């Protein structure tokens, strides 16, 4: 059975390229994003390039979402070998209005995704990483 990798935020950009590199190295890759459709599309594009990929919805800002992903990986693979915490946003770029220093809503979204999201993801997936010989 191939090693299993999860890349958070792999529907595009650096995460997608990381998933591609892992997949071409022989990993089975779980590609994730907030939209189930975008994750499925990314998995299909990786599949076209010879990668064994599975698309799953994941919002790292929601611990419930992380737990749902953990349940799916436990059911389908029983363990996790690699976790890449890549998902992140630059909310200041699309803030609803200019701010003096840091738009309050952008700060909240950035912290929820880029900081708390990493804690949620590790908390939810660490039990599966511990089942791997090389997690
Ligand atoms: N590109 C740069 O120059 C640069 C520089 C410094 C740091 N970084 C960091 O590198 C990482 C990747 O950057 P990138 O340029 O590849 O970004 P990107 O093209 O905007 O892609 C971000 C990815 O994160 C996902 N994502 C966003 N919010 C999420 C959430 N709450 N839960 C789960 N997935 C989420 C997006 O998927 P969906 O929209 O489908 O959910 C997308 O797949 C980010 O953490 C970014 O902050 C990038």
Globular, elongated, flat, extended or rod-shaped: what is the shape?
globular
Number of strands: 4
The distinct ligands, each listed once, are: NADP nicotinamide-adenine-dinucleotide phosphate
Sheet with the most strands, sense and barrel status: 4 strands, parallel
Helix content: 40-55%
CATH topology of the domain at 4-87 and 122-130: Rossmann fold
* Unreliable sequence segments: none
How does the helix and strand content classify structurally? Answer: alpha/beta
What is the annotated CATH architecture of the domain at 4-87 and 122-130? Answer: 3-Layer(aba) Sandwich
What is the name of the CATH superfamily of the domain at 4-87 and 122-130? NAD(P)-binding Rossmann-like Domain
Task: State the end-to-end CA separation.
Answer: 15 Å
- Portion of residues in beta strands equals 5-15%
Number of helices: 4
Mean of pLDDT: 96
Radius of gyration: 15 Å
Largest sheet, spatial ordering of strands: 3-2-1-4
